[in-house]
Amino acid sequence: MKKFNIRKVLDGLKEQASSSVSSGQSGAPENNLMHETLQSENFQLCKTVRHGFPYQPSSMAHDPVQKILAIGTQSGALRLFGRPGVECYCQHESGAAVISLQFLINEGALVSALADDSVHLWNLRQRRPAILHSLKFNRERITFVHLPFQSKWLYIGTEKGNIHIVNVESFTLSGYVIMWNKAIELSSKAHPGPVVHISDNPMDEGKLIIGYEAGIVVLWDLKSKKADYRYTYDEAIHSVAWHHEGKQFICSHSDGTLTIWNIKGQGKPFQTITPHGKQPKDGKKPEPCKPILKVEYKTTRLGDPFMILSGGLSYDTVGRRPCLTVMHGKSTAVLEMDYPIVDFLTLCETPYSNDFQEPYAVVVLLEKDLVVIDLAQNGYPIFENPYPLTIHESPVTCCEYFADCPVDLIPALYSVGSRQKRQGYSKKEWPISGGNWGLGTQSYPEIIITGHADGTVKFWDASAIMLQVLYKLKTAKVFEKSRNNKEDKQNTEIVDEDPFAIQIMAWCPESRMLCVAGVSANLIIYRFSKQEITTEVVQLLEVRLQYEVNDMESPPEGGGGGDRDLPTPGAASPSPQTTGPPTHPSTSSNSSDGVRDNVPCLKVRSTPLKQSSGYQVELVVQLVWVSGEPPQQITSLALNSSYGLIVFGNSNGLAVVDYLQKTVLLNLGTVELYGSNDPYQRQARSPRKARQPAGGLCDINEGSASEDRCKSPTSGKLSFSMLELALHWYRYHRDNSFSRSRSSSVTSIDKEAREAITSFHFCETFARKGDSAITPCLYVGTSLGTVLAVALNLPPAGEQRLLQPVIVLPSGTLARLKGSILRMAFLDNTGTFLPPAFETWYEPNAAGADSEERDKARKRRPVSVSPSTSQELQESQYAVVCSEKQAKVIALPSQNCIFKHSITETSFVLRADVVQMNIGNCVACFCANGHIMTLSLPGLRPLLDVNYLPLTDMRIARTFCFTNLGQAMYLTSPTEIQRITYSQETCENLQEMLGELFTPVETPEAPNRGFFKGLFGGGATSLDREELFGETQAGKASRGLAQHIPGPQGLEGMKGAASGVVADLARARIALDERGQKLGELDERTAAMLASADSFGKHAHDVRCYIMIRNIKLI
């Protein structure tokens, strides 16, 4: 208690003496009622899962037995995919690009080669894969990697043209090296170039084919250590592929040709094909085409072989999209792709290269997509991709994250979203089906909503650390498409390349009401319905929101505790400033002198709008040009389904809209919210035309061009409205177009600064100091750290709510903090979180008996979690306010600050939320310096402070979200969502929740050689690589060539991976050692027996000689 009183006194000294006295009087009894259950041990920060398409992919590999797929990226990331819901993300520490991936097929291991010339062995038998061995080359650059099936010897080709061999069991180099000058003709003086291909003959493991970039292919005999054949072509080689019988191979070249060679050929290709070249009639060589970057040659037992290739199009096909070509028999299919092809793999029935492959699908890795093509069906349809890889279908501009949603919400969204699915997919099941799902312990529903640059809004089921798209909403359908006439040009001239981009979203999960704010200063309110309707005329409100910007001077020191009485009557202007009837389309006009007036950025469609089941337009609100000044973008938004209100604000003002009566209730500039108690001395900047009576949206720079005032969130130049987060990042750390300088105190403000609306919160609380009853209120936070109250007088529910007006009246200032206000929330007198009142969902288009239920729902009293209106004064509430710099807890109705905490002095908070955990509530903050912090409630004790992620990208600031139960997320790249948790309980259960990539599967039997092949030869020939590449025969590798690096797990990690591939390999090695030891002992016994036999033979010979001599003597 004593400690608490000291804290209150210190807080009071910073405000006013009177405030400190009242705080000390009210704080003591209040603290006795509040017991904080959350402690530091309840928090731990860790990454959970990453969703989305791998950003900037560079390589790919597939395990045909385990049926899992691996994708490497240019930033050193690894993404592993099994069956839908089984995904894994790994990261190489160096961050170098992954140039090659090779599975140890059905062994639960993966080899990765990076652009920094390092090779790594990953153990996939644990839920979180880890590196067990690394090898760093010092003298040569790695260009190609090949690991034969069921082999422990890895071939590594280099830029110098040499081939080194690595034992994947111990990750050590063999002394066996294939030097480029021994592989090529001795008479050749030119270097053959880097190694672009290595593979062993399917029928003879002792024969290795090596492709050099300059056009030379060498068939190398591993045992004799010399080249058997050399094949030379005058065009550069990009890839090589074997026929399964090992008698032919095919090469792809830089001039768009394919050459087929017999291994015992006479130096000329058996056949030359130009798949996309025009064949001249005079027999001349076809015109060159673009390079064929890769070719694969797959055979079938009952039909013609498949030749699949990427590239090779004619140069005259300008503007044609990238293509994958499938040649099967006499037919050639050209499959166009949406993005450039990075790599492709053919999925086959067998992992053995010396058998008929029987290809059934092709996995095509594109720069921004993953496509799987069904080869078994006519027309080659694609499989429906079950992974959440379409997050970036249009750039993400904003995100919201909701945990513990109503249980019926996800089924409802899935029901309407399933009708949006495309048709024409392959009827077969998704072929990448390996792994097992985790044992999820999280049972609560989670939903992620993403807003996109093209105006779409996507709802995702994020429950149990999975992600699946539920429903897609296209907001651009509400507006007319732009035409190339003067009128439309005037409407869209100030809009950037993404005029429909989503800026902010507000969603009520209980009522399913949705409001989205677009970059073109527009809002759309949606209701959820399971029935289709046709809207004849989209209802529209046009708002003239323009306020004359004033300079301001700072309030006197200690102004944080100033007078909070009501503003002078008449100071506010509650009358709505709208143009046109509510149901009439946009009516733009220009004044006589050519100045634009009443012109919105977008034009709402005037034709009937067919709306399918799902979210349907209820109302459109647009800000319009006023006297030549364009509308500025919306910076804050809130919705309350119980009150039937939405409120939005921007850099100069706010507007409250009743979406039930389709009218504007309040239209004020920020200054008018203060009334006569404005703490800032604001003076007119310069004489202008008659100022608009309502608040306005003006650009931050007085001299900036008007075209820059409606910028898309995806554009290169950011505007004020790209969330307050982006504004502060630029304001603190970048020299940009914003002229405002930031001070660490609200008492030192640049005269060019403007007070923007940064946050809203609907609640049922005490509107004024000393009130004895709670009323519906709207709390407003500004960029100068002020929290203002607005009282709401609502008519009774039912028909009266639709007929009687809602009265809105500003009620004074609640508090001032350092920095912009980011979040507000309310607690009851026991410290329990008080969510805003809400209305339960009902079917808005119901008929008959359902309509009666709808009417009953409308007349029903809104769901409210606030105390009753008969609450006595001592049963107080607590307002929690968090700004960029600090957090405060304020007792109501006394309005005394009882707790205050300085979150950061050197940085600023980007995102703050009041979240509910399993056993209590807390404030969660993400700072620009990368720290994630949690504070207890109501005491604001620091519980967690982790330096997690420095703000290196505006995308993170724009998309970071906290939600209940210790979950958070952000967009880590343009295509990927990273989810994290700050809950100790979730961290402990995470291992069980993650899926397993490796599952025990028997390796298919090797192909039968057949009687005659076994009798006369011709079957596959094996090779004792251990004897050939081992240290005994090959010797030791050069010491400085490569450096072996143990995995980060160290020795303990190696022991912990006892069930992993390395343990299996180690056991195999021990078995081989034991076998060698036994063979050695057998050799010793054999030698002893031979020596004994020699001795016996010698003695026998001596005995025979003795007998012969004796017989002679006797004769």
What does the model show?
The protein has 1115 residues and is an alpha+beta fold. The protein is built from 16 helices and 64 strands. It has a 6-stranded mixed beta sheet. Strands 6-7-8-9-64 form a 5-stranded antiparallel beta sheet. Helix 1 runs antiparallel to helix 2 (17-33). The longest helix has 54 residues, at 1061-1114. It starts with a helix and ends with a helix.
In terms of topology, how is this protein built?
Elements (H helix, E strand, L loop, with lengths): L1 H13 L2 H17 L9 E10 L4 E7 L4 E6 L3 E5 L5 E5 L6 E7 L4 E6 L3 E6 L6 E8 L4 E5 L6 E6 L4 E5 L4 E7 L1 H4 L11 E7 L2 E9 L3 E6 L4 E7 L4 E6 L5 E6 L4 E5 L8 E3 L18 E7 L7 E6 L11 E6 L2 E6 L4 E8 L10 E8 L3 E5 L21 E8 L5 H9 L28 E7 L3 E6 L6 E7 L11 H7 L9 E7 L4 E6 L3 E8 L3 E3 L4 E4 L6 E4 L24 E2 L9 E2 L5 E2 L11 E3 L2 E10 L12 E5 L4 E5 L3 E6 L4 E7 H5 L6 E4 L38 H11 L23 E9 L9 E8 L3 E8 L5 H5 L3 E10 L4 E7 L21 H11 L17 E7 L2 E7 L3 E7 L6 E9 L2 E8 L3 E6 L5 E6 L6 H6 L1 E3 L3 E7 L2 E8 H10 L17 H6 L8 H5 L1 H4 L7 E5 L3 H7 L4 H54 L1
Helix pairs in contact: 1-2
Structural category: alpha+beta
Major sheet: 6 strands, mixed
Task: Provide a count of the helices.
Answer: 16
**Residue ranges: pLDDT <50 for 5 or more in a row?**
1-32, 549-576, 579-587, 684-752, 865-873, 1050-1063, 1065-1070
Global mean pLDDT: 81
The rough form would be described as elongated
Terminal-residue CA separation: 132 Å
Helix content: 10-25%
Question: What's the short version?
Answer:
With 1115 residues, the protein is α+β, with helices and mostly antiparallel strands. The strands form 17 sheets. A six-stranded mixed beta sheet has the order 33-34-35-43-37-39. A five-stranded antiparallel beta sheet has the order 6-7-8-9-64.
